[in-house]
Protein backbone atom coordinates (compact mmCIF):
# COMPACT_ATOMS: atom_id res chain seq x y z
CA UNK A 1 0.00 0.00 0.00
CA UNK A 2 1.55 3.27 -1.13
CA UNK A 3 1.82 5.90 1.59
CA UNK A 4 2.75 9.55 1.76
CA UNK A 5 3.55 11.42 4.95
CA UNK A 6 3.75 14.93 6.34
CA UNK A 7 4.19 16.39 9.81
CA UNK A 8 1.99 18.58 11.96
CA UNK A 9 1.85 19.69 15.58
CA UNK A 10 -1.66 19.27 16.83
CA UNK A 11 -2.48 16.96 19.69
CA UNK A 12 0.34 17.19 22.14
CA UNK A 13 3.83 18.55 22.68
CA UNK A 14 5.32 15.82 20.51
CA UNK A 15 5.77 15.89 16.76
CA UNK A 16 2.84 14.23 15.02
CA UNK A 17 2.70 12.75 11.55
CA UNK A 18 -0.13 12.56 9.07
CA UNK A 19 -0.15 9.96 6.33
CA UNK A 20 -2.35 9.02 3.41
CA UNK A 21 -3.17 5.71 1.77
CA UNK A 22 -5.73 4.99 -0.97
CA UNK A 23 -9.11 6.49 0.08
CA UNK A 24 -7.93 7.11 3.64
CA UNK A 25 -6.11 9.65 5.78
CA UNK A 26 -4.36 8.92 9.04
CA UNK A 27 -2.57 10.59 11.92
CA UNK A 28 0.17 9.35 14.23
CA UNK A 29 0.56 10.83 17.70
CA UNK A 30 2.21 9.94 20.98
CA UNK A 31 -1.14 10.85 22.57
CA UNK A 32 -2.28 7.41 21.43
CA UNK A 33 0.65 5.68 23.06
CA UNK A 34 4.34 5.01 22.48
CA UNK A 35 5.38 1.40 22.03
CA UNK A 36 8.85 0.04 22.78
CA UNK A 37 7.82 -3.11 20.93
CA UNK A 38 5.24 -3.79 18.24
CA UNK A 39 4.56 -7.36 19.40
CA UNK A 40 1.36 -6.55 21.30
CA UNK A 41 -0.02 -4.50 18.40
CA UNK A 42 0.71 -7.26 15.88
CA UNK A 43 -1.10 -9.70 18.17
CA UNK A 44 -4.06 -7.35 18.62
CA UNK A 45 -4.43 -6.97 14.84
CA UNK A 46 -4.29 -10.76 14.42
CA UNK A 47 -7.43 -11.00 16.55
CA UNK A 48 -9.46 -8.95 14.08
CA UNK A 49 -11.83 -10.85 11.84
CA UNK A 50 -10.65 -11.86 8.36
CA UNK A 51 -12.98 -11.82 5.37
CA UNK A 52 -13.33 -10.34 1.89
CA UNK A 53 -17.14 -10.49 1.73
CA UNK A 54 -19.11 -7.30 2.38
CA UNK A 55 -20.86 -7.48 5.75
CA UNK A 56 -23.52 -5.24 7.26
CA UNK A 57 -22.48 -4.09 10.74
CA UNK A 58 -25.07 -2.96 13.27
CA UNK A 59 -24.02 0.35 14.85
CA UNK A 60 -24.55 0.68 18.57
CA UNK A 61 -24.96 -3.00 19.29
CA UNK A 62 -28.40 -4.52 19.37
CA UNK A 63 -27.25 -8.11 19.02
CA UNK A 64 -25.93 -9.98 16.05
CA UNK A 65 -22.50 -11.25 15.20
CA UNK A 66 -21.19 -8.03 13.61
CA UNK A 67 -21.55 -4.80 15.54
CA UNK A 68 -19.76 -1.46 15.75
CA UNK A 69 -18.02 -0.06 17.64
CA UNK A 70 -15.70 -2.97 18.31
CA UNK A 71 -12.52 -3.31 20.31
CA UNK A 72 -9.78 -5.86 20.79
CA UNK A 73 -6.46 -5.75 22.58
CA UNK A 74 -3.33 -7.67 23.45
CA UNK A 75 -1.00 -6.66 26.26
CA UNK A 76 -0.69 -2.88 26.19
CA UNK A 77 -2.01 -2.38 22.65
CA UNK A 78 -5.65 -1.82 21.71
CA UNK A 79 -7.54 -1.62 18.41
CA UNK A 80 -10.83 0.28 18.34
CA UNK A 81 -13.15 0.54 15.33
CA UNK A 82 -16.16 2.82 14.99
CA UNK A 83 -18.24 4.91 12.61
CA UNK A 84 -17.72 8.63 13.21
CA UNK A 85 -19.99 11.57 12.50
CA UNK A 86 -23.52 12.54 13.53
CA UNK A 87 -26.69 10.83 12.39
CA UNK A 88 -24.88 7.98 10.71
CA UNK A 89 -27.78 5.55 10.85
CA UNK A 90 -27.66 2.10 12.39
CA UNK A 91 -26.05 0.11 9.57
CA UNK A 92 -22.61 0.28 7.96
CA UNK A 93 -21.36 -2.10 5.27
CA UNK A 94 -17.71 -3.03 4.77
CA UNK A 95 -15.35 -5.95 4.45
CA UNK A 96 -13.64 -7.23 7.62
CA UNK A 97 -10.39 -7.20 5.64
CA UNK A 98 -10.77 -3.41 5.31
CA UNK A 99 -10.61 -3.01 9.09
CA UNK A 100 -7.57 -5.26 9.33
CA UNK A 101 -5.84 -3.45 6.44
CA UNK A 102 -6.44 -0.05 8.06
CA UNK A 103 -5.03 -1.30 11.38
CA UNK A 104 -1.97 -2.69 9.59
CA UNK A 105 -1.48 0.68 7.85
CA UNK A 106 -1.40 2.45 11.22
CA UNK A 107 1.08 -0.13 12.49
CA UNK A 108 3.33 0.40 9.47
CA UNK A 109 3.06 4.20 9.43
CA UNK A 110 3.07 4.98 13.16
CA UNK A 111 4.27 2.12 15.35
CA UNK A 112 7.03 1.05 12.97
CA UNK A 113 7.85 4.71 12.31
CA UNK A 114 10.39 6.89 14.06
CA UNK A 115 7.96 7.86 16.81
CA UNK A 116 6.85 4.27 17.57
CA UNK A 117 3.45 5.73 18.40
CA UNK A 118 -0.18 4.88 18.03
CA UNK A 119 -2.60 6.75 15.83
CA UNK A 120 -5.79 6.52 13.85
CA UNK A 121 -6.90 6.13 10.25
CA UNK A 122 -10.09 7.36 8.66
CA UNK A 123 -11.89 6.19 5.55
CA UNK A 124 -13.60 8.55 3.13
CA UNK A 125 -12.09 11.69 4.69
CA UNK A 126 -11.45 13.00 1.18
CA UNK A 127 -15.15 12.60 0.49
CA UNK A 128 -15.95 14.35 3.77
CA UNK A 129 -13.69 17.28 2.85
CA UNK A 130 -15.47 17.56 -0.49
CA UNK A 131 -18.80 17.36 1.29
CA UNK A 132 -18.12 20.22 3.71
CA UNK A 133 -17.13 22.60 0.87
CA UNK A 134 -20.09 21.82 -1.39
CA UNK A 135 -22.47 24.78 -1.88
CA UNK A 136 -25.54 22.85 -0.76
CA UNK A 137 -24.00 21.30 2.36
CA UNK A 138 -25.65 21.71 5.74
CA UNK A 139 -22.84 21.26 8.27
CA UNK A 140 -25.31 19.85 10.78
CA UNK A 141 -25.79 16.78 8.54
CA UNK A 142 -22.35 15.26 8.17
CA UNK A 143 -20.97 12.37 6.14
CA UNK A 144 -20.28 9.20 8.23
CA UNK A 145 -16.85 7.60 7.97
CA UNK A 146 -15.03 4.64 9.45
CA UNK A 147 -12.29 5.22 12.00
CA UNK A 148 -9.74 2.63 13.14
CA UNK A 149 -7.60 3.47 16.18
CA UNK A 150 -4.40 1.80 17.37
CA UNK A 151 -3.48 2.96 20.87
CA UNK A 152 -2.31 2.03 24.31
CA UNK A 153 -5.00 0.38 26.43
CA UNK A 154 -7.35 2.92 28.03
CA UNK A 155 -10.69 2.37 29.82
CA UNK A 156 -12.80 4.47 27.44
CA UNK A 157 -13.57 5.01 23.76
CA UNK A 158 -11.17 7.52 22.21
CA UNK A 159 -13.38 8.33 19.18
CA UNK A 160 -10.84 10.52 17.36
CA UNK A 161 -13.03 10.71 14.27
CA UNK A 162 -15.49 12.65 16.41
CA UNK A 163 -13.34 14.39 19.00
CA UNK A 164 -9.73 14.72 17.87
CA UNK A 165 -9.13 18.43 17.07
CA UNK A 166 -7.01 17.56 14.07
CA UNK A 167 -10.21 16.54 12.23
CA UNK A 168 -11.51 20.09 12.70
CA UNK A 169 -8.17 21.42 11.42
CA UNK A 170 -8.33 19.26 8.30
CA UNK A 171 -11.86 20.42 7.52
CA UNK A 172 -11.00 24.06 8.22
CA UNK A 173 -8.05 23.84 5.84
CA UNK A 174 -10.26 22.28 3.16
CA UNK A 175 -12.76 25.12 3.50
CA UNK A 176 -10.07 27.81 3.43
CA UNK A 177 -8.44 26.25 0.37
CA UNK A 178 -11.78 26.03 -1.42
CA UNK A 179 -12.42 29.69 -0.66
CA UNK A 180 -9.15 30.71 -2.35
CA UNK A 181 -10.38 29.08 -5.56
CA UNK A 182 -13.60 31.09 -5.55
CA UNK A 183 -14.21 34.78 -6.31
CA UNK A 184 -13.15 36.38 -2.98
CA UNK A 185 -16.15 38.68 -2.74
CA UNK A 186 -18.72 36.07 -3.71
CA UNK A 187 -21.33 34.89 -1.26
CA UNK A 188 -20.03 31.32 -1.56
CA UNK A 189 -16.44 32.35 -0.71
CA UNK A 190 -17.73 34.17 2.37
CA UNK A 191 -19.73 31.11 3.35
CA UNK A 192 -16.66 28.88 2.96
CA UNK A 193 -14.60 31.16 5.21
CA UNK A 194 -17.45 31.13 7.71
CA UNK A 195 -17.47 27.33 7.69
CA UNK A 196 -13.69 27.27 8.18
CA UNK A 197 -13.97 29.69 11.09
CA UNK A 198 -16.62 27.46 12.63
CA UNK A 199 -14.30 24.45 12.45
CA UNK A 200 -11.37 26.40 13.89
CA UNK A 201 -13.41 27.72 16.80
CA UNK A 202 -14.84 24.30 17.52
CA UNK A 203 -11.37 22.75 17.31
CA UNK A 204 -10.24 25.02 20.14
CA UNK A 205 -12.72 23.28 22.44
CA UNK A 206 -12.06 19.72 21.28
CA UNK A 207 -10.06 17.05 23.06
CA UNK A 208 -9.93 13.28 22.58
CA UNK A 209 -10.64 12.47 26.25
CA UNK A 210 -12.37 14.08 29.20
CA UNK A 211 -15.06 16.69 28.56
CA UNK A 212 -15.50 16.33 24.82
CA UNK A 213 -17.29 18.18 22.03
CA UNK A 214 -17.48 16.90 18.43
CA UNK A 215 -16.22 18.80 15.40
CA UNK A 216 -19.65 19.13 13.76
CA UNK A 217 -21.33 21.17 16.51
CA UNK A 218 -21.51 24.94 16.33
CA UNK A 219 -19.25 26.55 18.96
CA UNK A 220 -21.54 27.04 21.99
CA UNK A 221 -22.54 30.60 22.86
CA UNK A 222 -20.38 32.12 20.14
CA UNK A 223 -21.66 34.22 17.24
CA UNK A 224 -19.60 33.43 14.17
CA UNK A 225 -18.27 36.40 12.18
CA UNK A 226 -19.44 37.09 8.66
CA UNK A 227 -15.99 35.98 7.48
CA UNK A 228 -15.81 38.54 4.70
CA UNK A 229 -12.10 39.04 5.28
CA UNK A 230 -10.43 37.42 2.27
CA UNK A 231 -7.10 37.31 4.11
CA UNK A 232 -8.28 34.47 6.34
CA UNK A 233 -6.44 31.31 5.42
CA UNK A 234 -4.35 28.37 6.49
CA UNK A 235 -2.20 30.60 8.69
CA UNK A 236 -5.18 30.67 11.06
CA UNK A 237 -5.11 26.87 11.16
CA UNK A 238 -1.39 26.89 11.98
CA UNK A 239 -1.95 29.43 14.75
CA UNK A 240 -4.65 27.22 16.24
CA UNK A 241 -2.26 24.26 16.21
CA UNK A 242 0.43 26.28 17.97
CA UNK A 243 -1.97 27.42 20.69
CA UNK A 244 -3.13 23.88 21.29
CA UNK A 245 0.45 22.63 21.40
CA UNK A 246 1.29 25.17 24.09
CA UNK A 247 -1.72 23.92 26.10
CA UNK A 248 -0.48 20.36 25.72
CA UNK A 249 -3.67 19.10 24.05
Structural class: alpha+beta
Low-confidence stretches: 1-15, 225-235, 242-249
Percent helix: 25-40%
* Widest β-sheet, arrangement of strands: 1-2-3-9-10-7-6
SSE string, helices as H and strands as E: EEEHEEEEEHEHEHHHH
Mean pLDDT: 80
How many alpha or pi helices?
Answer: 7
How does the overall form come out from the CA principal axes?
Answer: globular
Number of strands: 10
> What proportion strand?
15-25%
What does this structure look like?
The protein has helices spanning 39-46, 96-111, 125-132, 160-163, 165-180, 187-205, 234-247; strands spanning 4-8, 16-21, 24-34, 55-59, 67-68, 70-74, 77-84, 91-94, 117-123, 145-152. With 249 residues, it is α+β, with helices and mostly antiparallel strands. The strands form two sheets. Strands 1-2-3-9-10-7-6 form a seven-stranded antiparallel β-sheet. A hairpin with a 2-residue loop joins strand 6 (70-74) and strand 7. Helix 1 (39-46) runs antiparallel to helix 2.
Descriptive tags:
single chain; 249 residues; alpha+beta; seven-stranded antiparallel beta sheet; three-stranded mixed beta sheet; 34% helix; globular; disordered C terminus
Topology, pairings included?
Layout: E1 4-8, E2 16-21, E3 24-34, H1 39-46, E4 55-59, E5 67-68, E6 70-74, E7 77-84, E8 91-94, H2 96-111, E9 117-123, H3 125-132, E10 145-152, H4 160-163, H5 165-180, H6 187-205, H7 234-247
Parallel strand pairs: 4-5
Antiparallel strand pairs: 1-2, 2-3, 3-9, 4-8, 6-7, 7-10, 9-10
Amino acid sequence: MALSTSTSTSLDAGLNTSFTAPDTQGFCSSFYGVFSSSVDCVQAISRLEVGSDVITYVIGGGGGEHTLPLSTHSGNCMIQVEVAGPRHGNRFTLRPDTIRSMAETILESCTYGTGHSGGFLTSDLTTLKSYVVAPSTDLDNAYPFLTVILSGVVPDWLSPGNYDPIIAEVLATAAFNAATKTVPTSRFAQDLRRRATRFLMQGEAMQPRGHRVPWWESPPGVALPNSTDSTLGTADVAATSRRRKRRGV
